[in-house]
Amino acid sequence: MTEMILAVKNLTASIDDTPILKGVNLEVKAGEIHAIMGRNGSGKSTFSKVLAGHPAYEVTGGEVIYQGENLLEKEAEERAIAGIFLAFQYPLEIPGVSNLDFLRVAYNARRKHQGLAEMDPFDFEDLVAEKLDLVKMDASFLERSVNEGFSGGEKKRNEILQMALLEPTLAILDETDSGLDIDALKTVAHGVNQLTNPNNACIAITHYQRLLDYIIPDYVHVMQDGEIVTSGGKELALELESRGYDYFNK
Amino acid sequence: MSATVKTLVNQPYKYGFVTDIEADTIERGLNEDIIRIISAKKNEPEFMLQFRLKAYGQWLKMKEPSWAHVTYPPIDYQDIIYYCAPKQKKEQLNSLEEVDPTLLATFEKLGIPLSEQKRLGNVAVDAIFDSVSIATTFKEKLAEDGVIFCSISEALQEHPELVQKYLGTVVPVGDNYFAALNSAVFSDGSFVFIPQGVKCPMELSTYFRINNGETGQFERTLIIAEEGAEVSYLEGCTAPMYDSNQLHAAVVELVALDNAQIKYSTVQNWYAGDHLGKGGIYNFVTKRGLCKGINSKISWTQVETGSAITWKYPSCVLVGDNSVGEFYSIALTNNMQQADTGTKMIHIGKNTRSRIISKGISAGKSQNSYRGLVKIGPKAVGAKNYSQCDSMLIGDNAAANTFPYIQVDNQTGKVEHEASTSKIGEDRLFYLAQRGISEEDAVSMLVSGFCKDVLNELPMEFAAEADKLLSLKLEGTVG
Question: Is the pTM of this model over 0.80?
Answer without folding.
Answer: yes
